[in-house]
Amino acid sequence: MKGKEWYQADDVAEEYDSKRFSRGGRLIDDREKRAVVEAIGPVEGKDVLEIACGTGRFTAMLAERGANIVGLDISNAMLAQGRAKARRAGVADHIEFLRGDAARLPFPDDHFDAVFAMRFFHLAETPAKFMAEMARVSKHLVFFDTFNRRSTRVVYNWLLPMGSHLYSASQVERLLDDAGLRLVNGEHDFLLPYGFYRKIPNGIAREFRDIDTSLGETAIGDALASVSYWTATVGDGKT
């Protein structure tokens, strides 16, 4: 089972957080949340859209920080998990969850202050369409991550059930340019792939993470990082 079919399965949604963000996966969760917060900045009173919101890890976090947030996903099972998480966090009244297609977003132009997508583009069948839609509905900021072609992810990718798409930096730059977006910042991380961290206890994972981070700060880090976080702004004069 690959792609959309795998992602929308009920059992995948039910086990998604526990399989990916327990044990050493907590380090991944922390890093991804920090990346989102740093990219978007203060969100109180801002209108924010999350594409492929999944189980609502980021929607709930940003709602707690005062955002007016919409979480869109193609999977009803994932959305159910997101709604439950929002209720537990006490922010259900501040999030609107919608089922929809990221290639045809049901919003007018310039509708959101920021639009972001995490863990999305590796499954994207038509990345140019998705990027164009994110740019269309954003007044200013677009943020997303990619799994990288020149990394240990290449080996790990063979084992994945969904057939992840890996990107080079030049591919990302072309996607941004074609969508009328201007790259502001790119951060590169995790020389060791996510799957490695998920397999080991958190305490041991922290030791490897310290080594990983140290190597990531060298010249080899950017070249071989398995994950990149990209921040872009709309480049046609919108503010």
From TrEMBL:
Its EC number is 2.1.1.-. The keyword Lipoprotein does not apply. Keywords: Methyltransferase, Transferase. GO terms for molecular function: methyltransferase activity. InterPro entries: Methyltransf_11, SAM-dependent_MTases_sf. Coiled coil: none annotated. This is Class I SAM-dependent methyltransferase. It comes from Halobellus litoreus.
